[in-house]
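Reproducibility note. Readers wishing to regenerate the assembly model reported in the main text can use the exact inputs given here. Chain order matters: entities are listed in the order in which they were concatenated for prediction.
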Amino acid sequence: MAHAILVVGEVADGALAPITAEMLGAAKRLSDGGTVACALIGPDAGSNAGDAIALGADEALVADNPALAEYNTDAYMQAILKLTEQAAAPVILFGQTNIGRDLAPRLAFRLGTGVIMDTVELAMEGGRLHGTRPCYGGNARAVHVVQSDPQIVTVRAKSQDPAEADASRQGQTTNVDIQIDDSAIRVKVTDRKGAAAEGVRLEDADIVVSGGRGLGGPEHFDVIEELAGALGAAVGASRAVCDLDWRPVSEQVGLTGKVVSPTLYIAVAISGASQHMAGCSGSKNIVAINKDPDANIFKASRFGIAEDFSKVMKPLIEAVKQERGS
Amino acid sequence: MHIIVCVKQVPDWDIPPSSFKVDEAAKRVTPPAGVAAVPSQFDTIGVEAAMRLKDKTPDAKITIMSMGPEAARDVIKHSLAMGADEGLLLTDPLFEDLDWYQVALVLSTAVKKLEDVDLVICGRQAVDWDMGVSGSGIAELLDWPALTIGKDVQVNDGTLSVERVLMDGFETVEAPLPAVATVSNELGEPRYPKLQQIMQAAKKQVTIWSAADLGLNEAQLGPDGRKLTLERLYVPQSDAQCEMMEGDTPEEMAQNLAKKLAEAKLI
Ligand SMILES: Cc1cc2nc3c(=O)[nH]c(=O)nc-3n(C[C@H](O)[C@H](O)[C@H](O)COP(=O)(O)OP(=O)(O)OC[C@H]3O[C@@H](n4cnc5c(N)ncnc54)[C@H](O)[C@@H]3O)c2cc1C
Ligand SMILES: Nc1ncnc2c1ncn2[C@@H]1O[C@H](COP(=O)(O)O)[C@@H](O)[C@H]1O
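Running the prediction on these inputs yields the following structure tokens for the assembly.
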């Protein structure tokens, strides 16, 4: 069956990843009456077919070869080529994830077509997909159109409204037989380490407290952690801080770090460079503490304190505890 | 071992946001007057990655490849001063307005023409458009593997090994050479050229190739060869109005902030 849009789904911890729900929501909106296919790759991925259909897929294309258990560029390329052929869709959406940012360009060049990476807005105009993406370190936005088919796009997490799950939706599940040609697998994963995630996951947190280079040293993150603890928040950091090894890379917020969009983002001793804002400007409310009243971060903030963090943080932690206690 | 590092010249990114300007009609960024273009940040990290390989294997040869205007010679010079051996400047009026497919076509064709290349190193993304596809694109057009977003790049017995930065961790991947690696800032600070190296760099050879040298024509590099068009370029406006906390002491400001946050039901 030829579809209007193919969503390349991802499964995390046995469930459909949130980005997949977002892409299905976007696909439904963009498909203009056409049908939506959702690719599910990996052993047991098919167990999520029902969820994909409830979220808007008309057909779940399941590739459950054991060789696809973990991401490997070459093995996944073989699978995605077959799935792409099967879906015959003029538009393919990937998440801007570990997989999407590696595989989407590869697929585009293999098929001799174009790809728009890391889009935050999608619109169908005149039958072509218009993808808007931040560029120049978050200073500008560009709107691109892929002129050939398939039009491949990667979608940034938290940029689209996920569809509401509707368990009564009907759809078809198709198992796509994928033969993996081992001789075409050149890439081998020899080691994989997860970042030690403690407490609230940064990208899911409702409140994030981030610290920057202005803290002066890793030891001064104690006030960041304390405020985060008092608020049930996750801890974030600027790249300057991660580059200095004060904090792990997994805490980096920004263009090349995590994209967060909490209800409340508290930036302490962070200047607010465009590349940092690229990761947090989707926050509903930004609060900044910075001793420089002209710091860029205030331009994006709702509330600000222009003071030395070392004088503000302890009383702030106390006051926050009181407000929450009362 | 012959390593190519792809270095793009881009507008200086280290400028205050207020001096960032876009010409919406031309769909181009207008660099502030008097601010020189610089090598893309991740590409200098690519040069560092190559130099670390050369530190271990001194007979490795590093060629810096840049496609751009004649002025892109400057970013090649900077990379040569870091210790690279030769430069290759790809310059031609036909290269002026390419999309990413065409860029990868030009760069991969040059790699093919060089014949003896074992490893191509690119930045994870060029810091102008932040697209992050050219490394994979070059690899695909050469039918080579690409190991992307590396924080550590090693070569042992003809095998490339890259520790990749994932969104939540790291993974180590291997592939046989020839291959492409792309690098990220987690690799570490690039070395800074010493004065003597800057002087030596002036004597190093920079080869220039045009589209004709690469056997590429106007049909491939013109508008019809594009896969991607740019419809619009603009600066997003923020409507945030920052309310600064008042108070005679930092304690008072902190208390006012907590009050405001509670009133707004944010805590
Ligand atoms: C291609 C590229 C990608 C990038 N990606 C990212 C990214 O993903 N994430 C990211 O964060 N950055 C990124 N950057 C870096 C970014 O440009 C900035 O350099 C970085 O965000 C600065 O971090 P910072 O605000 O902590 O440090 P600084 O810019 O040094 O700012 C420190 C701030 O602390 C304030 N301060 C100092 N002392 C005190 C005090 N005692 N009390 C209160 N305030 C104080 C200062 O006024 C200043 O505003 C990227 C850059 C490039 C070129
Ligand atoms: N014009 C160019 N000259 C040399 N290298 C380039 C050029 N364009 C892109 N690259 C390389 O490809 C990487 C990724 O670029 P991009 O896909 O544009 O984000 C860059 O970091 C460079 O290493």
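We highlight two features of this model. Chain B has two domains: 2-225, 240-267. The first helix of chain B runs from residue 41 to 56.
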